[in-house]
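Quick illustration, no need to memorize.
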Amino acid sequence: MILKLSFLGDPTLSAVGRGLDEFLAPLSATSEVRFAVRVAAYEAVLNALLHAGSEGEASATLELAVDGDFIVATVTDNGPGFDPAGVPDPRTDSSLRRPRGRGIFLMRQLMDSVDFVFPESGGTRVVLRRALHPHGPTPRRSP
């Protein structure tokens, strides 16, 4: 099963939630897995629309698929890219009071893997993977 959604600066992102619900509903994933995928994919799309271009002109594509035993959410944008290692840890004293800056941290905590790909043609691709049927606790990643 594959679902592909495209967005152009939709600040409410309601289509993201509807698309994720539509994709995840027929899967036999636990509510914890569905929640993790929903939050992480939402954060990835939000980051793309906020940071990939000037206001209202950023675009993002969300592709959802099942690959073997994994749910894979891929978010692609048209922005200039960024250095994931340069994103501050939101748990530090200097970051705790900031109203933003927790998206990548959340993705890494909720998913089994988070990969950032920067194609030569530009843009950023975020690949989120979560086991459909986890065998024990999900490994938690540090930023």
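The longest strand covers residues 59-67.
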